[in-house]
UniProtKB/TrEMBL annotation:
SUPFAM superfamilies: Heme oxygenase-like. It comes from the Bacteria. Catalyzes an amino-pyrimidine hydrolysis reaction at the C5' of the pyrimidine moiety of thiamine compounds, a reaction that is part of a thiamine salvage pathway. Thus, catalyzes the conversion of 4-amino-5-aminomethyl-2-methylpyrimidine to 4-amino-5-hydroxymethyl-2-methylpyrimidine (HMP). Substrate binds at D46, E84, E138. Residues 15-212 form the Thiaminase-2/PQQC domain. GO terms for molecular function: thiaminase activity. This is Aminopyrimidine aminohydrolase. Belongs to the TenA family. The keyword Hydrolase applies. It holds the Pfam family TENA_THI-4. It catalyses: thiamine + H2O = 5-(2-hydroxyethyl)-4-methylthiazole + 4-amino-5-hydroxymethyl-2-methylpyrimidine + H(+); 4-amino-5-aminomethyl-2-methylpyrimidine + H2O = 4-amino-5-hydroxymethyl-2-methylpyrimidine + NH4(+). The keyword Hydrolase applies.
Length: 213
């Protein structure tokens, strides 16, 4: 039997996919041992990421070819704009990160690369390309979060970041994204594959960057 299109893309993105899913950051998160400075750097950069991610989600909503997809993506946009942003604000408070640092700290190279990729995918006006990048960002996070051990670490900074990505609702959304990628991706297989592979490489680099500087 032919593998699913999304599985073939994931295979083609090795070794970056597995390196991302089993990254030191993810292991330390599961243990609750991420150093506060590393967590702070990661979250400051990731909050920027969320900005362009929402833009990409908007582009996917605009270019979707079915009403059902628009509804599901739209509901998801509402969720992220709500509870996930709340986590960031509580985390910044707990880590003593003020607005000055949050706004003033420059983007790291991986953040710049990822933001540029998301803007490129959004501007392509192609639903398959937008779905490719969204699928990587969500699916890779679901995969690492599912591997985190129980019990969850005691501090909300670690525990909630895992739970946000390891829950039934999120798993269903990733299933939807993969099904969309399987459905619309093959029509632009080469271009879609490039966006997918670049996104996986940047996910890995994004975790690496938390330990730099
Ligand atoms: C570099 C990076 N890649 C992927 C995600 C995962 N992610 C981004 S937005 C979103 C939706 C709401 O949780 C999710 C899961 C991240 N946070 N940072």
């Amino acid at each position: 039997m032919n593998p699913r299109f999304s599985d073939a893309l994931r295979e083609a993105s090795e070794p970056d996919w597995s390196a991302g899913v089993a990254h030191r950051f993810v292991r330390e998160l599961g243990e609750g041992s991420v150093a506060p400075g590393v967590m702070a750097s990661y979250l400051v950069q990731d909050h920027r990421f969320l900005d362009d991610f929402l833009g990409l989600l908007g582009a996917a909503i605009a270019s979707a070819d079915t009403f059902d997809a628009r509804l599901r993506l739209g509901r998801f946009a509402g969720t992220i704009a709500g509870e996930e942003n709340t986590y960031f604000l509580r985390a910044f408070e707990a880590l003593g990160i003020d607005a000055e640092r949050r706004i003033g700290e420059p983007d790291k190279a991986a953040t710049r690369g990822f933001r540029a990729l998301m803007r490129e995918a959004a501007q392509a006006g192609s639903y398959p390309c937008a779905i490719a990048v969204l699928t990587v960002a969500e699916w890779l996070y679901l995969e690492w979060a599912r591997r985190c051990p129980y019990p969850r670490p005691p501090h909300f900074l670690h525990a909630e970041w895992i739970t946000l990505h390891d829950n039934a609702e999120f798993g269903e959304f990733v299933s939807f994204l993969r099904a969309e990628l399987d459905r619309v991706g093959p029509s632009q297989a080469v271009r879609v594959g490039e966006f997918f592979t670049r996104a996986v490489r940047l996910e890995r680099a994004f975790f690496d960057a938390a330990y730099e500087g």
